[in-house]
Amino acid sequence: MDAVMPNFSDVLGPNVEVKTFPDGDSYVRILEPEMFKGKETTIYSRLWPEQNSRIFELVLLARTLRKMDAKIEGAVVPYLPYSRQDKIFLEGEALSIDILLNLFAESGIKKITTFDCHFIKSGRGEYEREGVRIKNISLANMLVEKAKKEFSKNLTTISPDEGAGYMAEKAMKKIRGEYIEGKEAYRRIERVEGVGEVEGKDILIIDDMISTGGTMVRAVENVKKAGARKVGVATVHAFFLKDSLDRIERMADYIIAANTIPNKHAKINFMEAL
Ligand code: R5P
Asked: How far is the CA of 215 from the centre of ligand 1 (A)?
């Protein structure tokens, strides 16, 4: 059986209702609960945007399924929030990803399938963390193959930092600065360096995610400055926060993304890689 959240409706038919009470509390209801009794069940849920509400709704669903004697096989969560807080960078910080995975495990979700998980930094594979088996699938090859058809047959692929190096032939190096002042937890990108030999070439810069766009904008600038003929941009998780979409559209000759987060440049369907 599949238990499908409404925010999966572009790829699967939902059978769970989610609403919000006037004060902001979440409401979750399984539409045909009797169907799940004793059945192996996979949950399908996007966890972004509004990740904290989405996470809690997933917990409500899993625990309700368990009450109905469903056997939770796992959950497909195309983008895993908090995957960038996989380490303690400053003393006293919450190790958010471990707390989240622990919450999943405690709620009966012992396996998740996700795509280009930030802290795994590799292609397809299974990993164990905090009692959860994480099946990670990389969409890098699908993005590159499609870009070769649509953008340029003779592409050289480069990632803007070493973390996404597994997605490309070569990796640049990203130097981060200090946290910015104020309430937003964001570290400036000082520079991206090590662009290599790109003169006269068609380049596809590929990263696991474009969030504020700081990384990608710097990377495109560098590759252009170094004399690339054409520069395309590829990403799996396309948040395109702030004005990043505008900036990247102005700079890049081509943009491709997956639909783990719905966006206007989504040309790769993660469901085809499951
Ligand atoms: C970080 O290491 C990731 O791979 C991305 O490069 C990063 O999260 C993108 O963030 P932003 O778009 O805000 O620079």
From this structure: 6
